[in-house]
Amino acid sequence: MKKILLLLLIVLLTITTACGAEQTKPKPKPERTNEAGIINQDQSTEVINSRTNFSFSLYPQLVKESAGENTFVSPVSIMLALMMAYNGAEGDTQAAMATALESSGLSLDEINRANQAWIQSMEKVDEGVQLQVANSLWGREGISFEETFINSVQDFYQAEVQSLDFNKPEASETINRWVSDQTNDKINQIVDKSINPDTILFLINAIYFNGKWEKPFEKNLTEDHTFYSENSKTKQHPFMTQGGKFQYYEDDKFQAVALPYGAGETSMYVFLPDESSSLEEFHEQLTAENWNQWLTGFQEQKGQVSLPKFKLKYDVELKNVLSAMGMGIAFEEGSADFTNMVVDKASKPSISSIKHKSYIDVHEEGTEAAAVTSIEVGVTSVNVNEPEPFEMKMDRPFFIVINDNLTGSMLFMGSIYEPEL
User: Fold this and answer.
1) pLDDT, tens digit, for every residue of 12-26?
2) β-pairing verdict for 223-228 and 310-317
3) Of 357, 303, 350, the residue nearest 328 (C-alpha)
4) Does residue 287 sit in the same domain as residue 138?
5) CA of 113: how far to CAs of 93, 116, 145, 173, 349, in Å?
6) pLDDT tens digit string along 22-77?
C-alpha cells in the first residue's frame, strides 16, 4: 500500500509540474513571413531584388544633388508611393516607370501582391521595434477616378481614400494632419497650404520607425570627441560608445558594423570609409551587387564602436532624380499616360511634383525615424582564426542603412557629413 501511495504521489507531482510549466510558457511570437507566402519564391526574389536595385539607382542620384550635404531618405517610402501611381499608368509611361523602378519584366499583379505581403508583414516586427507603413489617396471633389485604380491602392496598399474640396484651406490641413499622425508628429507638412487648381490627386506614403537597440549604449559613456568633416572643419560632438561582439566587415576601403534593434529583424548598418578614402569614393561603390556581397561578409567579432548622437531633417523634390532614372515622360504635360487613373481620358494627367521628407534621431536607447513621400498629380486643361578586436569610431563622414533583414527592404539610407543635435 505504501508503494502504491508513493507512486500516486509521484504521478500527481509530475502532472502538477507539467501544468505549471504550461501556464508559464510564453506565447509564441506570430511568425513573420515574406512575399513567398503570396507568390512563388522565384518571383518573390525578383521583387526583392528590384527594390534593392531601385534603392541603389536612386541614392547615387540624390547624393550628387546634395553635393556634400547630409542626405537621408526612405527608398521603400518612395517606391511604395510610385507603385501606387504605377497602377494608373499605361503605355510608354508605364514602361518608363518600370525602368526607373527596376521592375521591368515583373507583372503589375506580382508587384502589387508582393508589396501587399510586405506591408502586412510590418505588423509582425518584433517587440523591440515599432514600424508602421501607411498609404493614402486624396482626390479632388468632382473628379471621377477609375474603379480598378482605386481598388488597387485600397486592396494592395491598404490606402485610405478620401475626396476633398481642394479649393478650401481645410483640405491641405486635413492631409497634413494625417501625415503628422502617421509619423508621430515628426513630419507635420507635405502639402502646401494653397493647392494648385490643376491638382486632382495626392498619393502619399508615410513610414515611421522606432527601434530600441538590442544592446543600448550606456549614457555615462557618452562623451564629446572631435568630428572631422570633409571640408577640413572640426567640432566637438557627443559620441556613444560600447564594446562587445558585433557583426563586422571590412575591406581595404572601409569598415562596417551592424547594430541590431530588438530581436534582430532590423539593423542599422554603418559604413565608415578609411581615412585615406572619402564618402564620395564610397558612394561610387554603392551598387546592389556590392551591397549583397558585403552582407554575406559580416561576421561576429569583438570590438568597440563609437557612434555620434545625431538628429537630421531632410527634404527633396524628386522630379529631376527620377527623370534621370528614366521616367521623365511621367512628368511631361500632354505626353504622360495615366489613362488607367481617371475616367475622363481627355484630361491627360501627369505627375507635377514628388516630394520626400525624412527625419532621424539616433541616441543611446535606439533610433526614431520617419519619412513621407507625396506624389501630386495634375491635369492640363568565414575565417576560423579569431581576428584582432576592431575599433570603429565614426568621427568623419559615414553612411548608414536601416535594413529590414527578413525581406531585404531598405527602410532608410543616408550619408552623414556633419552630425547635428
Assistant:
1) 333 333 333 333 233
2) unpaired
3) 350
4) no
5) 21, 5, 22, 32, 26
6) 332 333 334 545 443 443 344 468 888 999 999 999 999 999 888 889 999 999 99
Show the cell assigned to 223.
Answer: 562623451
Encode pLDDT of 213-233 as tens digits: 999 999 999 999 999 998 778
Q: Which residues contact 399 (CB under 8 A, 6 or more apart)?
A: 270, 271, 273, 279, 282, 283, 286, 413, 414, 415, 416
**Residue 272: closest CA among 259, 288, 260, 261:** 259
Amino acid sitting at position 136 = S
Q: Looking at the structure, do residues 363 and 389 belong to the same domain, yes or no?
A: no
The CA-atom distances, in angstroms, between 257 and each of 95, 140, 154, 362 are 38, 47, 39, 15
CB 206 within 8 A of CB 182: yes
- Domain range for 204 is 35-212+311-379
* Rg, C-alpha atoms of the chain: 25
Is pTM beyond 0.85? Reply is: yes
Do 201 and 224 lie in one domain? The reply is no
Ramachandran area for residue 184 (φ above 0: left; ψ -120 to 50: alpha; else beta): left
The CA distance from 287 to 59, in Å, is: 10
Please state, in angstroms and rounded to a whole number, the distance separating the CA atoms of residues 167 and 152: 27
Are the beta carbons of 377 and 352 closer than 8 angstroms?
yes
What is the spatial distance between Cα 18 and Cα 14, in angstroms, rounded to a whole number?
A: 6
Q: What is the dihedral of CA 49, 54, 60, 61, to 10 degrees?
A: 170
Cell of 111: 508587384
